[in-house]
Amino acid sequence: MAFERVCGLSDVPENGALRVELADLDVAVVRYEGEVYAVQDVCSHAEVPLSEGDVETFDGAPIIECWLHGSCFDLRTGEPTNLPATEPVDVYPVRVQGDDVLVDTESDGRLPLASGN
């Protein structure tokens, strides 16, 4: 694992997302109910930034909604929770150290329950 600092925790709105553009990857860093998640910042259905969508709970799972067509993705697994998306988005392990948000961008993007502090 290769965790790297991607932003400050204070940069990420509570119950919201921040787009982080890295050299070869765009990540949505999401804060929701005290947890921090990192997912691929593009909807698997329509190539739209997920970081522009709403963050909420669906059937007890934290999700981010694509603003264009309404597809929602579980922030822990990347799996879509409704149509039109049928393919998951990548999720990345997260660590929070003080105000630093660290993301393992070298992971394969398919780790279950990738959130963590």
From TrEMBL:
Keywords recorded for this protein, A-Z: 2Fe-2S, Dioxygenase, Iron, Iron-sulfur, Metal-binding, Oxidoreductase
Molecular-function GO term, any one: oxidoreductase activity, acting on paired donors, with incorporation or reduction of molecular oxygen
Rieske domain segment(s): 4-103
Record Gene3D superfamilies: Rieske [2Fe-2S] iron-sulphur domain (2.102.10.10)
PANTHER family listed in its UniProt record: 3-PHENYLPROPIONATE_CINNAMIC ACID DIOXYGENASE FERREDOXIN SUBUNIT (PTHR21496:SF23), FERREDOXIN-RELATED (PTHR21496)
Name recorded for this polypeptide: 3-phenylpropionate/trans-cinnamate dioxygenase ferredoxin subunit
